[in-house]
Design brief:
5% strand, 457 residues, two-stranded parallel sheet, Fumarase C, Chain A, domain 2, binds arginine, Ribonucleotide Reductase Protein R1, domain 1, two-stranded antiparallel sheet, mainly alpha
Length: 457
């Protein structure tokens, strides 16, 4: 175990094969492209290229089959694969590393990995978005309403579909951030060597093209030193986790007996070992908690990079545990939230009861708007309705239960016979018909547009 001749502690801190083995696909891909480019540039003989590609194909089979011998004495995935290549095809395998260093190799592998994983995370986001869209469509068909909350106080009626689409907006920006991060990672470091560039007549643009990068890096020092592409992915994932935690938190609150707005599936909840009636929202709770790991990974890499001199320093190896853990955590959180949303059952009556609650006065704004629409300055309307609410509360009545005559008497002649109708939930919803509002017609349009943007439905 460890590296022969080294202190075990040095081995323990230095050997990275335990985590960077995740890069084996990218390492093989990068090596193939590098070897092809070398052959095209006349640095490798065709027969040498052929031997190297054959050896790499055999190694790929071993890795796929799980029979590849990972060895700590070879430190990392790059040396493990290179040593195995030489074992299989002989000394010609040693030519693969011509015009390359592990510094540009690892930077290339990690960029390829970031690009692949960003695309996979995008698919997970699509699954969660699809689940939200399906719930929104069903909620709209049922006409589900619930209170809009501000300060966690009941404020105004909104459609549940509108609320769910709000979460979708945040997730759509998360997809954009992942796409941006992947696009900026699309420069290929191969050819930078240890950091000064290559002395061989190589063609970095060709390597970049073979690997599907947009272009090679422009500066060899930057090529091996830069990790802001990893920071960007971690920042995007941190923001994504914030959004998942807000969705999780609402489902936790809403599934409590106090709210009772939603019942979460047995498949994403657990029972208590002593209280038979319980259905605990563990999945959502753990998503809420796992944010910390992802934020921590961003922090760890920021700190590792801060003040680090150019170009390659071993500190850069520490980018990987943070990045790998954050990506795997976000991926799991997305899967849990997709399952949770997909199987959630919303309780229409409980949500409507909260909107129409006697002590909620969710239609107070409606009455102020009613007066304002009939010429009373809104500030004044707000003040008189506030007083009215206090009076109604003291009498234990809803605003509409005061009756047209009392409303006229208390609020003046602007109040007409149509006032009670204006105070209904349906009227309140229908009035919010300006762009981005919760009126059913706006939400129907918003839903259709969202389904089109997400390629769903
Ligand atoms: N395992 C190393 C890393 O992840 C690879 C690069 C090592 N380069 C070096 N000059 N020691 O950063």
């Amino acid at each position: 175990m460890g590296i022969p001749g080294k202190d075990p502690a040095l081995s323990a801190i230095h050997v990275s094969i335990g985590f960077d083995r995740r890069l084996w696909r990218e390492d093989l891909e990068g090596s193939r492209a590098h070897a092809r480019m070398l052959a095209e540039c006349g640095v490798l003989e065709p027969s040498e290229l052929e031997a190297i590609l054959r050896g790499l194909a055999e190694i790929e089979q071993e890795l796929e089959a799980g029979t590849f011998p990972f060895r700590e004495e070879y430190e990392d995935i790059h040396l493990n694969i290179e040593r195995r290549l030489i074992e299989r095809i002989g000394p010609v395998g040693g030519k693969l590393h011509t015009g390359r260093s592990r510094n540009d190799q690892v930077a290339t592998d990690l960029r390829l990995w970031v690009r692949r994983r960003a695309a996979e995370l995008d698919q997970r986001l699509l699954q969660l978005g699809t689940a939200l869209l399906a719930q929104a469509r069903a909620a709209l068909a049922r006409g589900d309403v619930l209170p809009l909350y501000t300060h966690l106080q009941r404020a105004q009626p909104v459609l549940l579909a509108h609320h769910l689409l709000a979460h979708l907006e945040a997730l759509e920006r998360d997809r954009g951030r992942l796409r941006d991060a992947a696009a900026r990672a699309a420069e290929c470091p191969l050819g930078a060597g240890a950091g000064a560039g290559s002395g061989f007549p190589i063609d970095p643009a060709r390597t970049a093209e073979l690997l599907g990068f947009a272009r090679p890096c422009r500066n060899s020092l930057d090529a091996v030193a830069a990790r802001d592409f990893a920071l960007e992915l971690l920042a995007a994932l941190s923001i994504l986790m914030v959004h998942l935690s807000r969705l999780a938190e609402e489902l936790i609150l809403w599934s409590s007996q106090e709210f009772g707005f939603v019942v979460l599936s047995e498949r994403v909840t657990t029972g208590s070992s002593i209280m038979p009636q319980k259905r605990n929202p563990d999945g959502a709770e753990l998503v809420r908690a796992k944010c910390g790991r992802v934020f921590g990974a961003l922090q760890a890499l920021l700190v590792a990079l801060k003040g680090l001199p150019l170009a390659y320093n071993k500190d850069l190896q520490e980018d990987k545990p943070a990045l790998f853990d954050a990506v795997e955590t976000a991926e799991l959180a997305l899967a849990v939230m997709a399952a949770t949303v997909r199987e959630a059952r919303f309780c229409s009556e409980r949500m409507r009861a909260a909107v129409e609650a006697r002590d909620g006065y969710a239609n107070a704004t409606e009455l102020a708007d009613y007066l304002a629409a009939r010429g009373m300055p809104f500030r004044q309307a707000h003040a008189v309705v506030r007083e009215l609410v206090e009076r109604a509360r003291a009498e234990g009545k809803r605003l509409e239960e005061l009756g047209v005559e009392r409303l006229q008497q208390l609020l003046g002649p602007r109040v007409g016979q149509d006032v009670l109708e204006a105070l209904s939930v349906e009227a309140a919803l229908a009035r919010r018909a300006a762009p981005m509002g919760t009126a059913p017609e706006r939400v129907r349009e918003a839903l259709a547009e969202a389904e089109r943007r997400w390629g769903v439905g």
